[in-house]
């Protein structure tokens, strides 16, 4: 190309680019993706309107009609806030269009998916319980269970009505409650006369002298029991006047009484376990007779007296090992010797169950609870006649005893037997004596029954 043509062309290019090379003019900013800005109102006296971002037509143009932006002033605070809100809105839109993350598996399904397979009874409990419907318990529900539960009044011939496994216990209860004979240690007589206004009039046949009485230690023990029982009477009296709720009665009146009974049993091996708020394992809820896919809802009782195999005595070590082996053979969700998965009761067979409720509520609660225990025993393979279990219903001051008797085709709950009350010392002492006898029954008859069921010899222990 000739120089005469190149030089004029370079001059024209330099003139066209001259405005862009001016250091006094800011470079053109990159294109913005923000929405159009509103036009400044006439009363915008601060000059912070957004029209300054848009060049005026016909002004500040460069060569060849190119438009040159004017100097941009700092963005106003209002505009910055608008941009921030717009960004948030866009982010929310993008999040709402994303698919939701899958929900985690329920704990029961997660446990079932990781449970170990087993050929022992109870290995199919998880698959059976998933498809079942839980129905509320109403009056009459107990009679329509797969193994019905029926409450029966105590007859005159109690020993013919109640199975032999409870005869020794029934004899002791009759001695204490009916004949009112020998249920207070003789060592407590002096403190009773001294501390109670009518203590001097208590009959002599209420007191007994222990064969292993050892003077001062036995006296100290009798005085300790008296003071503890006297405090329970005072607490119960205050609660009755103050209309305290069930939890208060359980914590400050019923639990101390039951704990005192287990401590007063010299041989040990029995524990009182508070179980308020826990529940029956879902796969052992009792089935309905005509609808096997439906089960009756239920909850735990308030207390149980159980064999203490969490902290076994040396003489219970063999029994504890046998229970651990049986429980260990079950699937993960069935690893308990009882009808509940509550940790303190996994290895400790329940003997006596106590419910704090009104008669209607309490009988339903005890009925479902007992039916669930029978179902648990069936899943463990114990299909013969099961041992008769004592049940206690307490409401306010008053305590009553029932016996859950296995009749094969149904469960009869026989009772009630009034045990006494926490209202006065003369009614609390016989109640306390019966609770001690119940602890003896758990440590004796119930323990021997479990040893037999697990293939052992009770005489060897």
From TrEMBL:
Pfam family, one: PDDEXK_12
The organism's place on the tree of life at top rank: Eukaryota
Organism from which the protein derives: Gaeumannomyces tritici (strain R3-111a-1)
Transmembrane segments: none
Domain PD-(D/E)XK nuclease-like: residue ranges: 200-446
Protein's name according to its UniProt entry: PD-(D/E)XK nuclease-like domain-containing protein
Compositional bias (Polar residues): 114-128
InterPro entries registered for this protein in UniProt: PDDEXK_12
Chain residue ranges for the region called Disordered: 18-67, 109-132
């Amino acid at each position: 190309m000739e120089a005469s043509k190149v030089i004029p062309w370079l001059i024209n290019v330099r003139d066209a680019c001259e405005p862009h090379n001016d250091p006094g003019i800011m470079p053109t900013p990159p294109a913005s993706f923000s929405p159009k800005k509103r036009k400044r109102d006439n009363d915008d006296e601060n000059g912070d309107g957004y029209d300054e971002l848009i060049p005026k037509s016909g002004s500040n143009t460069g060569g060849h009609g190119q438009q040159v932006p004017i100097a941009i002033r700092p963005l106003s605070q209002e505009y910055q806030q608008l941009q921030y809100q717009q960004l948030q809105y866009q982010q929310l839109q993008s999040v709402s269009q994303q698919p939701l993350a899958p929900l985690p598996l329920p704990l029961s399904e997660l446990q079932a998916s990781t449970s170990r397979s087993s050929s022992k009874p109870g290995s199919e409990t998880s698959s059976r319980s998933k498809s079942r419907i839980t129905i509320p318990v109403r009056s009459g529900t107990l009679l329509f269970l797969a193994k019905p539960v029926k409450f029966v009044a105590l007859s005159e011939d109690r020993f013919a009505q109640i199975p032999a496994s409870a005869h020794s216990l029934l004899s002791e209860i009759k001695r204490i409650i009916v004949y009112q004979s020998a249920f207070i240690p003789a060592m407590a007589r002096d403190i009773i006369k001294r501390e109670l206004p009518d203590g001097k009039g208590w009959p002599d046949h209420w007191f007994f002298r222990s064969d292993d009485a050892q003077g001062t230690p036995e006296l100290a023990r009798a005085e300790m029991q008296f003071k503890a029982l006297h405090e329970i009477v005072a607490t119960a009296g205050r609660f009755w006047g103050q209309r305290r709720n069930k939890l208060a009665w359980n914590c400050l009146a019923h639990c101390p009484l039951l704990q005192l009974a287990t401590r007063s049993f010299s041989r040990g091996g029995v524990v009182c376990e508070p179980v308020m708020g826990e529940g029956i394992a879902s796969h052992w809820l009792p089935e309905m007779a005509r609808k096997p896919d439906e089960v009756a809802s239920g909850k735990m009782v308030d207390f149980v007296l159980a064999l203490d195999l969490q902290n076994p005595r040396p003489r219970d070590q063999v029994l504890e090992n046998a229970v651990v082996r049986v429980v260990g053979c079950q699937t993960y969700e069935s690893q308990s010797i009882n009808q509940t998965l509550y940790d303190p009761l996994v290895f400790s067979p329940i003997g006596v169950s106590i419910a704090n409720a009104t008669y209607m509520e309490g009988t339903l609660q005890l009925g479902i609870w007992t039916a669930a225990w029978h179902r648990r025993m069936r899943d463990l393979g114990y299909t013969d006649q099961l041992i008769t279990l004592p049940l206690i219903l307490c409401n306010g001051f008053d305590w009553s005893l029932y016996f859950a008797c296995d009749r094969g085709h149904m469960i009869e709950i026989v009772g009630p037997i009034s045990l006494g009350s926490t209202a006065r010392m003369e009614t609390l002492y016989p109640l306390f004596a019966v609770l001690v006898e119940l602890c003896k029954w758990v440590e004796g008859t119930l323990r021997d029954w479990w040893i037999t069921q697990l293939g052992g010899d009770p005489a060897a222990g």
